[in-house]
Design brief:
Distance between the termini: 32 Å
Number of helices: 1
Shape: globular
Radius of gyration: 17 Å
Number of strands: 17
């Protein structure tokens, strides 16, 4: 996975499957036979002929809930034309997977090619967070993925040095990275907001981690017994 394919806050060349039309709007070039999975309600405009249906039954319900929240829905878009998506004014990231896997904090997924596989997989190396085990959304295969960030994100290379991230600022990471939990200060010593100043997630290996310039107060991982 080449980090150069990750784009945010800029418009890409025409003819690309997914591009950042503006910093907060995703443009998807639709074509027959190239269906799209997206958050229901994220469509803001389209031209040409595009129709929307419920997500395919093959999509696991647990994956749908991780992306949209309890009771939420994903939709299947198909047709020919240009489709524009947005998610509450969040900044858009676009990247291309080439037979690879990306672990995503579910709520940050805006859309992906329907040919990609969405799976719920355990997060290894973070047993300290919960005795019940932690799971995350993994997107696998070859195709395009669009994520949403609270502010313009940055991608950090984990190959040379171990990289530590506030879990509340975490957007996505290359699946297969070595992960571990680290606590650097007693929570009782913190005043005001605490989170990552006391606890961080360490990443190391061939790949990158994407972080946003905002600490999300929502659940960053789904804990399932």
């Amino acid at each position: 996975m080449d980090t150069q394919t990750l784009s945010a806050h800029r418009a890409d060349a025409t003819g690309v499957r997914m591009s950042v039309h503006s910093s907060k709007t995703l443009k998807v070039t639709m074509a027959t036979g190239h269906d799209l999975i997206a958050k229901a309600g994220s469509m803001i405009a389209y031209d040409g002929y595009v129709q929307f249906d419920a997500a395919p039954a093959s999509l696991r319900r647990s994956a749908e809930e991780m992306v949209t929240g309890e009771g939420g829905r994903l939709m299947l878009a198909r047709g020919d034309g240009d489709l524009y998506l947005a998610d509450y004014g969040g900044d858009i990231l676009v990247l291309h997977l080439n037979g690879e896997a990306l672990s995503v904090n579910g709520a940050t997924l805006l859309a992906c090619d329907a040919s990609l596989e969405l799976a719920i997989e355990p997060v290894k190396g973070l047993a300290k967070l919960s005795g019940s085990g932690l799971t995350n959304l993994v997107v696998k295969g070859t195709g395009w993925v669009a994520l949403v960030s609270q502010g313009i994100p940055m991608a950090l290379d984990c190959a040379e040095r171990e990289t530590y991230v506030d879990p509340d600022a975490l957007v996505a990471w290359t699946a297969g990275l070595e992960m571990k939990a680290r606590r650097t200060i007693k929570a009782s010593a913190l005043i005001g907001r605490g989170s990552g100043e006391a606890f961080q997630i360490g990443f190391k290996g061939q790949g990158f981690v994407v972080v946003q310039p905002s600490e999300d107060t929502g659940d960053r991982f789904k804990i399932r017994g």
